[in-house]
Amino acid sequence: VALAKAVEVPQESLSRSQAAMLVAAFAGSLSLSIGASAAPRSRSAVNMQVAAEAQVAQPVALAKAADEARGLAIDSISKAHSGHMGLPLGCAEVGAVLWGQEMSYNPDDPTWLNRDRFILSAGHGSMFLYSWLHIAGYDLPKEEVSNFRVKDSKTPGHPEWQGMHPHTPGIESTTGPLGQGIGNGVGMAAAAKQAAATLNTADHTIIDHHVVVLCGDGCLQEGVANEAVAFAGHEKLDNLILMYDSNGVTLDKMAEHTQSEDVSMRFEAQGWEVLEVDGHDMDAITKAYRYAKDSDNGKPTLIVCKTIIGKGIDEIAGTCAAHGEAGVQYQDSGREALGLPADEKWYVSPDTYDYFKSHKAELVAKYDEWQETFKAWKAANADKAAMLEKPAPSAEELMAKMGGFEVGSGVATRNAGAEVLQPIAQEMPFYLSGSADLHGSNKNYMKGVGDFSKNNYAGRNFYYGIREHGMGAILNGMAFYGLHTVSGSTFLVFSGYMMGSVRVAALSGLPVSYIWTHDSIGVGEDGPTHQPVEVVAGLRAMPNLDVMRPGDAEETAAAYASSVTRPDGPTALILSRQNLAVIDTCSAEEKRAGTLKGGYVAKKEEGELEGILIGVGSELELAINAAKELGKGWRVVSMPCVEAFERQSAEYIESVLPKAMKAKTTAAEAGYTAAWYKYADKVLGVDSFGLSAPGDEVFEAKGLTVPAMVALAK
């Protein structure tokens, strides 16, 4: 109270938390030994300068904004009777510092290239993000905030990014599955490093922003997060700041029931800087954030924010109940304790709006300065500007750059992919590829573009180590970043490790390509542990994922071209280890055009149509050879991509697979058979695990032979 009077702030206008912030601000100005400061744990941070004066320019204004952000979360979750109160209330001061003072952004241009990116990895706390986006001036009106979890609102249960134009301005990535957002942040930080190394010059810096991720205990317990954290530390991504909402509470129990490791030491061991602060002390948060942002010491930074989950509603604060909507019943008393008016829900004061309006003007001024720098950069670097603004090529344009393959020759589709990847790399200067320690087997190394590493951020071949799930989340982050087209590779059988990330890519509409090789029992001697008989069928069940399993080298060319030009979703390229014949029953042009349509007639019947054989991937050749034995009236249909085929017109689909012929249609694929009965009454496939033997012997043992297909089709 005395401090309030000293600075002429009316006592009655202060809530409890605002008063506490005022005390902290004054305490920080009086002595380094009073109040929380950003205390470094690692040796390299020992020399961090902690200023004695207050770091928060307007602590009372931001404390009020923090409490009003809490109120927005309380009111929206109470109206929905659904949602997570804990994080929005517990991290309100973190939000106030980020949006009210430290981050660089422009609400009027939410896709600005050099904005700081913020990712809420703990996506269940989405009202934290919606509240601050509204207060900060993004196009997210109060009506949308109040419609939390309402159908078709801009405030869904978890943050959702949709396509290249975000559904909710300011949402940088789709989060909710814990740990994914950390991987996304690592991907964005890597993408920013790559872009900066490619585009910045000695005279003009157009990319120097940071990536900020807010996570909780749940995110850090997920293995995907640890994989991504290890990659970030190894590659020295010091443009990444991870803010850890360390409240000691998980959904079932207090965190100590399931974890006992020292998280800070784990991060230090992985090459990170670690700072620990009181997550409700805005001075301490500010000091730590500025140190992390300005140090450029070759280390990403973890800021451990010690917080009270659900702070603001005493009945749930610091308990597991704060993880859900238990605080709804305390809406009124909680709002009263925060100093919010009882007669106005979703209250944001004129003072707070005025503060953020003024702050926005400061941000826009810096944005305008950047625009001038960008104009000067364009004028001085025509080649780089042309690279940045180069329109994406079409699939047809890319295929025109790809050479052909000799008919009748045997080419593994992974090897065909290695060839057609090179012109893609040359035509698409922001195309990035990588592998989880399998470049030599996946055959997806791009020649002449360098390897991305802490010693060469301009490189475009990424080495992820044996971290498939981390790779998947990092790829998504690069795609969310918006500048690059990306792909990553491993064996198909290991795609399961990254399926959580693949699902996020599919539902977000991210143009990510997965190069998954060693596609079937054709793997041979490595045995059933490496023969993914069930995987392709499972992938085809995922909405918005194109699964392309080409049957020869020409189909592979089209599959690659399709994957890197598809704008609204990911593509899985399923490639063979063994050689496949380049089929001679139709032209290369017909095969490529047909592959883009997902399915086509690969061998026309000669005379009246008697039956149809569907061949997929390595079984295309099998179907063609069977048709030759069955007679001239048999048609062979290649269907490398079911999803693309089903996007074609009804007339086209009928021309390829007449409904009247379903009873006389037989499909063949070296994998699970059930889904093929949609198109055929008979299916030759593999509904059991494989075995360790040479590939041709495994095919024989599993009955995938020409005589078997002929007998089944008759």
Shape: elongated
Strand coverage percent: 5-15%
Query: What proportion of the residues is helical, as a percent range?
Result: 40-55%
Mean pLDDT: 92
The major beta sheet can be summarized as: 6 strands, mixed
Please give a structural write-up.
- This protein is of the alpha/beta class.
- It is 41% helix and 12% strand.
- The chain contains 28 helices and 19 strands.
- The strands form four sheets. It has a six-stranded mixed beta sheet, with helices on both faces. Strands 9-8-10-11-13-12 form a six-stranded parallel beta sheet, sandwiched between helices. Strands 15-17-16-18-19 form a five-stranded mixed beta sheet.
- Helix 20 links the parallel strand 10 and strand 11.
- Helix 3 packs across helix 5, helix 3 packs across helix 6 and helix 8 runs parallel beside helix 10.
- The N terminus is likely disordered.
